[in-house]
Structures are given as structure tokens and as C-alpha cells.
Amino acid sequence: xxxxxxxxxxxxxxxxxxxxxxxxxxxxxxxxxxxxxxxxxxxxxxxxxxxxxxxxxxxxxxxxxxxxxxxxxxxxxxxxxxxxxxxxxxxxxxxxxxxxxxxxxxxxxxxxxxxxxxxxxxxxxxxxxxxxxxxxxxxxxxxxxxxxxxxxxxxxxxxxxxxxxxxxxxxxxxxxxxxxxxxxxxxxxxxxxxxxxxxxxxxxxxxxxxxxxxxxxxxxxx
Length: 222
What we know:
The protein has helices spanning 25-33, 37-48, 54-67, 72-78, 88-97, 110-116, 150-162, 179-184, 196-201, 214-217; strands at 9-12, 19-20, 83-84, 101-109, 124-132, 138-142, 169-173, 187-191, 204-206. By secondary structure, it is α/β, with parallel strands linked by helices. The protein has 2 domains: 9-21 and 84-217, HAD superfamily/HAD-like (Rossmann fold); 26-80. Helix 2 packs antiparallel against helix 3. The longest helix has 14 residues, at 54-67.
């Protein structure tokens, strides 16, 4: 598609977009460690219905994982079953070389980002952060205000910091939690689509596993 305004900033989702073999890392972790499914369901329902805040939902997830022995090393061990999406590292590096501002807006966890992208090229990172004590036990964390419908606000914030319009910002995602930000972005790209609504909203849909076609979508900035 031809854009009226050239893209200057590209923001990415993490789970299912840049990291394969997981749809949501929280779900992957809870299933791996055997967290109480009823308490997980109740917390999600209470957040969605407005009875608890996102921070309260986040801290409930941390408590559930901690109760099941989810130490830092054990969490990293769980991630051994995951991998970066094909072409992800190459694409990120090349887009950075081409002069794009690169952002990450995700409801995932910083420990997953650090596991697969330790030498990342992101200019901005908006993600949940998990904290550990000296023994590696979960000691707390910092929730992101930029998940679900808040992802659009995250993109607006990045645009503001860079002195850009939203029309100059793109978002690359894969699932229904990306709908709001995809609607807000000047260009939205859906990779490995997980839901038909995302395909309908996205300007461009890439169905293959390899992210390399993103280099054809995003040429050199003007």
C-alpha cells in the first residue's frame, strides 16, 4: 500500500510476533509451572470486568508463579522450549541500520526479551518487568501501563517522544490484544495471524513463519 506519510518508527509486539512457540508468555509460564487455573481465570475475569486493576492482575500472576516455585533459573529453563521467530534478529538489525526508530510495546515480560534478544536494538521498551532476589526467587515487579487497549497509548507516547505523528508510526503484531494499537498506527502489519479480527484490521498480513518479508514492507526511510 502507498502511504501519504513515510514511516519513521516501527513498534513490535513480542509474544507470537518476535518469539515463536508461545501465544502469551504468561499462559506458557502458568501451564509450565501448574498454577491454579481457577485463580488465573478469576483474576483475568476480574480485570476484564473492571473489578481489579491491571497492576493487581499482574501481581496475582506473580504470586501464582512464585507459589509454584518459578525462580529465575526455572523460568529461563521454561523458555528453552521457545525460539525467536525466523528472521527476527536479522530484521530488527537491518531496520535499525536503515534508520528506523525501533520500539517494543508488549504485555510480555522483560526476562523473555533478555533471553532471546540480549543485545537488542530497541530504542524504546514498554513491557512488564519481573524482579528477583539474590536467590533467584520472584520478589516483585513493575507492570506496564501499555498492554491491551493501553498499547495504543504506548504508541502515542513513543510518537510524542520522537516528535512524530501517529501516521508516521507502524505496529507489527499478531493477536487480538494488538487490535487497538493497530487501529491507531499509520501502518499495521499482522504476522503469524492468531485471530481473524487482526487480519481484518491489519493493513498488511504476512502468513509465513519468516519475518524477512518485513524488509520489503519497510524500505529505507525518506
